[in-house]
Amino acid sequence: MRSRLTPGLRPPQHTGALLSVTLLLSVGKGMFLATALIYLLQVAGLGTLTATAGMTLWGAASAAVTIPTGKLIDRGRGRVVGTVSAVGVAVLIPVLAHLRTPGALLAVLFVAGGLDSAGNVVRRALFAGGTDDSLGALAWARTASNVGFALGGLCSVWLLTERSAGAFQAGYAAIGVGYVVMAACFAATAMFARRPVDAPAASERPLHAEGATERPLRAEGAARRPPRAGTALAAATATLTIHATLLSVVLPLWVSGHTDVPVAVLGWLVALNAVITIGGQIPVSRLATTTARALRCLRGSAVWTAACCALLGVVPLVPSDGQLYLLIAATVTLTAGEMLEAAGEWGLSATLASAGEHGYFQSACVLGEATQSAAGPLLVGGLVTALPVLSWPVLIAVIGVGRYLAGLIVPPVDSAAGRPVAMVGATEVHDKGGTDERLAQRQQRHLP
């Protein structure tokens, strides 16, 4: 039997419907995020500061609801939370297109951002805890989201061309339909009731380089994890997802202000990132099938992201003919860091969580991502603008801090060898009679 946590060429069983709806929802969300600021500025008539504050409120609400949502999921309220949050956004996004009052617009953006984030946590917890292949399900979900965001960006071209109240009302109504479908999926899916299937035989588990048997991710539990592992995971994720800010904010600022390359090249660089992530995220996720490998992916992502910063820093120093090649190299290294960060984040969140904790650990990951989305553009973009030369060593140092924080997630250091050890904790097994048994095993092994 194939390992439950090795992403394959097909989506894991029982995830097809949720993956399809995730793709549909991502198209709408990609279109909304690409057009929301333009709507606030040019159709609703808000000032730049007020419009920016609205999107900041969306991000702040997204971060604020993550941990409470995760705790509700772990208490068995995931179906209700997911359904209510999706219905709420399905109503609020179309309403937004009819509003012109600044106070009402800001209030709707704040509430909608929180509800959208709550639904995101529920989806991730379903993929992590409601399937027999957590890592594969999360990798397929990210791929579906990437495809959806790309399609949403294409759909946004029509709205950005029309820029009329009627066009935005029609477009945002269509986005609301996607959330209605997601609400129906949350209400009807059987994934909330699923449990892991039988664990693979010892001969089918990944082997450590020295010969010791490693269990796959779902078999590694919480028996010996540090008490603040969730906090460390959120902090490391918030720091190492800086790759998103580098791509969406820093790269445009740098290309337009410090290179001789045409600004139109940005579209091709973003497309290159999208193509690599869509085609490579699932294969890269196979590198994170155990705790040790997931940790190496997360910490290794820091090296690739730091290399991107170093390449971007030297772009203005080379002749014009060579700048494009350096920008391509920087985009490739950034994308490698992005895929490794995602794989490590998913792997560690799955291995740290016992059967009733997937909501909490997925919410920790979403909290980290939302924090970077809310604070990263202002902090990182402001740093690069104010200190175009010194900003790159500072960013590399910040990424190094993220790599250090990732090291705090794993179990204690073996004092004899001075290297981290991965513990095998509790796992839940479903036998033929339908009875859940908990088999507690602990096993130490040294990282190579």
Question: What structural keywords apply?
Answer:
two-stranded antiparallel ribbon; single chain; 69% helix; disordered N terminus; mainly alpha; 448 residues; 13 helices; disordered C terminus
Describe what this molecule looks like in 3D.
The protein has a two-stranded antiparallel ribbon. The chain has a two-stranded antiparallel ribbon with strand order 3-4. It is built from 13 helices and four strands. The chain is mainly alpha-helical. It is globular. It has helices at 16-43, 48-64, 66-96, 102-129, 134-162, 165-188, 229-240, 242-258, 265-285, 291-314, 320-352, 358-386, 391-407, and strands at residues 413-414, 419-420, 426-430, 436-440. Helix 2 runs antiparallel to helix 12, helix 8 runs parallel beside helix 12 and helix 10 packs antiparallel against helix 11. Strand 3 (426-430) and strand 4 (436-440) form a beta hairpin.
Q: How many helical elements?
A: 13
Average pLDDT, all residues: 82
Based on CA atoms alone, the radius of gyration comes out at 22 Å
Oligomer: single chain
- DSSP E strands, number: 4
Major sheet: 2 strands, antiparallel
Measure the end-to-end span.
27 Å
Structural class assignment? mainly alpha
Summarize this, please?
The chain is built from 13 helices and four strands. It has helices spanning 16-43, 48-64, 66-96, 102-129, 134-162, 165-188, 229-240, 242-258, 265-285, 291-314, 320-352, 358-386, 391-407; strands spanning 413-414, 419-420, 426-430, 436-440.
